[in-house]
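Marked as duplicate of an earlier ticket. Keeping the data here for the record.
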Amino acid sequence: MKDEGRPAKLKDIAERLGISVATVSRALQANPAISRQTRELVMQTARDMNYTKNIIADSLRSGSLPVIGVIVPHGVTHFYSSVLDGIEHIAASAGYAVVNMNSHERYVEEYANVRNLANLHVAGIIASVTQETADFSHFGSLMAGGIPVVFVARDIPMQTYSSVTADGAEAARRATHHLIKQGCRRIAILCGPSRLKMVADRKHGYIEALREYGLPLRPCYVAYSDIDSVSAVDATDTLLDLNECPDGIIALNDTLLFSAMKTIKRRGLSMPSDIALIGFSDAEYAADVCPTLSTIEDRSRLMGESAAQILLNHIRGDMTPVRKVISTVQRIRQSSRRK
């Protein structure tokens, strides 16, 4: 008999319904082995009795908390906040909470994030690596310790891990095609750090498009930049200082795109007549600036949802690596439309 004032336990629900504690536990976990009628009865009884799940007790039994850890390099950007929104949506529907950590594009902080989440005994981790990350052993130690990992947006060059990324090469190829069709012949690409696989993929698509149209690849039109506004402005200035200034620029993420736009304006050049500009961005305000910015949308929320679903499958025992590619959406606006 339950004491008044004491929180209800699984045993109390089982006694009221005349079923086993194991059946109550499985029903509250929506286990399909329990009939729908019994699951609904148990859940309603749990609500009536103000039952609250004992997360600590469950974690002691399972060895991990019902928590998913997320590590992103830019927690305040629209892109990563949208990724996180997608992760939280799927995680909540499966009964998991989300702990988000920001690496601020620094390897040492990413490493510390990984260790802290491992010490919390999270059930799994979704990560987007920093622009500094070249050693991935800290993720290997997670897998060895039974904590599955899924990479989102920025993955690593190892096929043993699951990842969800955008179709970067194809998107950059289509963006280059667009600029060529607008009459651009001196097309530059404003990249992030060369060590990122995402950058290599998008640069590959850019090169393929130039080849398809018989245009030369000019190394001076490939500008690498750290993913911050100061570096991006410097890289854009370098491009604009060339004797043959580019007449089109592709920027590989939000930070680079808006930095390029500001630099072009500061130099007294107009878009798209002097320089046609297109970039990767999910930011809604790309359509609110002047000129409105042509963008390739990464569908970041869907990327977060997909990464969370893959991670949940890993947590449930299916460790088959999944490499999912999400198609992008091209939005042509004033900054690149000449025709």
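See parent ticket for discussion. The radius of gyration is 25 Å.
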